Amino acid sequence: MKIKSVLKPKHVAWAIGAVVGAILLNLVVHSGAKASVQPPSSPLVEVATVEQKDVPVYGEWIGTLAGQVNADVKAQVTGYLLTRKYKEGSYVKKGQLLFEIDPRPFQAALDQAKGQLAQARAQLIQNQAQLATAKANQLKSQLDVEKYGPLAKVDAVSKQDFDNATQTDLANQAQVQAAEAAIVSAKAQIQANQAAVETASINLGFTRVISPIDGIAGIAQAQVGDLVSTSSGSLTTVSTLDPIRDYFTVSEQDYLALQKRLSNSDKDRWKLQLILADGTTYPKEGDFYFADRQVNQNTGAIQLAALFPNPGNILRPGQYGKVHAMVRKQQNATLIPQAAVNEQQGSYLVAVVDKDNRVSMRPVQVGERTGTMWVIRGGLKAGEHVVVEGQQNLKPGMTVRTKPFKSDVE
Fold first, then answer.
1. N- to C-terminal Cα separation, the chain
2. 47-56+330-404 sits in which CATH class?
C-alpha cells in the first residue's frame, strides 16, 4: 500500500523558506557579535607635574629622653634600712624623706660625744681655777722676793730666807705655766669634742635619706632590712622632668648646616618637634639646648640636646624620642610626590608620561624628603609629568590616559 503525501507543493516551499531564513538569521547574529568586540582601552593613571620652588629641608634624628637633672640618692652612713617613705614613680619635693636608716647607733655616738664635750668643758673650768690659784700664789711669792731682796743686801734677813722666797716664786711661776698649758690643752680637747659632736650629729642626720631636688623618684634599689653603706650604690634616683632633655646625634655635615642657621640669629627660633615611639608627634615644640664639646672621631657625629616642656611629667627618661626639625632652605628644588618614586634594588625610578601620553621609565637621583614631596637631584626637569597613582603593570612605550593627581594632604 502506498502512502500519499498530505503536503501540498505550496506548503513545501514555505517550509524550505523558513529553514533557510533561520540559518541566515543565525549567521547574521554571530557575525554581528564578532563585529562588536573592541580592543582593550589604555590604562588610566594619575599624574603630577614636576615642580621647582624653594622648600625647607627637614632632618630627623634618633634621640633618647633624659631628665634635666638626675640625682642619685645614696647612703652616707652604714646601717640597716628601716623604712621606705615614698611611693616609687611619684613626685617628691626637695628635702622629703625617702628612706630611714636605723638611727640608734648614731644617736648613741652623738650622746657619747656630747658627754665628752661636757667633761672637757668642766676640765677647762677646773684648769682655769687652778690657774687663778697659781697666779695668786706666784704674785705673793714675787712680792716676798721683792721684799727680801733689799733686806738681804744689808743682812736684815738671812740669806736662807731670801733663797727660800726665790725658790717658792720660781715654783709658783712653773705652776702658772702648767695651768696655762692645761687650759690650752682643755680648749683643744673642747674643739675636738665639738667636732666629734658635729660629726655624730651629721651622721645621725644622714640616717634620714632625703631627696636633694624636686622631681620624680624612681624604683627603690634597696629594700627594708638591707645593710646599706656609701659603697652599696644608689638607693634610688630622682629626676627633674619639666623640661625634659632629648639627646640626639647628628652628622658633622648636618651640624655645620645647623650652625649656619644658628649663627644667623636663628638660635632662639630653631624649633624642634618630638616624634614618639608610637609615631605620634608630641604637641609641644622644643628648643635647641646645647651641642657637645667635640665630634666623635669614630663616627663623625656630634651629640646635641634639646629641651621639651613636660607638664604633668608625661615623658620619662629613657623613652625613644626622634627629633624632627628644619635643617635649611633649598633654593629652586625639583619636587615630585613621594608616591611617584619606586625603589628597586637601591636605585630609584619614576614613570614619565610624554606629550603623546606614552610612558617611559626613568632613573632619578633623590635627595631629602619634605612633607609628602621628594627633592629630586637629577633625572627630571620642571614641567614634566610623572605617574603617581596607577604605576602597576606599566611598561615602557605604553600609551595611557591621564588625570591630575590630587593629594589628600593639603
1. 99
2. mainly beta
